[in-house]
Amino acid sequence: MPAYVIYQGEITDPEKYEAYKPLSGASISAAGGRLIVRGGDTESLEGEAPPGRTVVIEFPTRQAAVDWYDSADYIAAREVRKDAAIARMYVVDGYDEP
Questions:
Q1: CA atoms of 6 and 79, how far apart (whole Å)
Q2: Closest listed residue to residue 55, CA positions, set 8, 87, 20, 90
Q3: What's the structural domain count of the chain?
Q4: Quick check: 11 and 85 in contact, CB under 8 A?
Q5: What is the pLDDT of residues 68-88, one digit of tens each?
Q6: pTM of the prediction?
């Protein structure tokens, strides 16, 4: 079953964040992930949209998502991001029709 990593981040240092983006993108591809959403414009339909960027990444399984997050490549990317954004990130299982 696919799993989705949801990232919501408020950028605090745009220059440092620009250095993070190619590192994170390369790590996602290397781990078999696929970007679904990468910071596009939002329109609130109900309640308030979260501030900053929203990113959605699809992985083939939850374990693949967790392995990506814990990978050396993404740990290096997170090190670059740590002073560039305030982030919230979580993994959600996809849905398989019965």
A1: 19
A2: 8
A3: 1
A4: yes
A5: 999 999 999 999 999 999 999
A6: 0.91
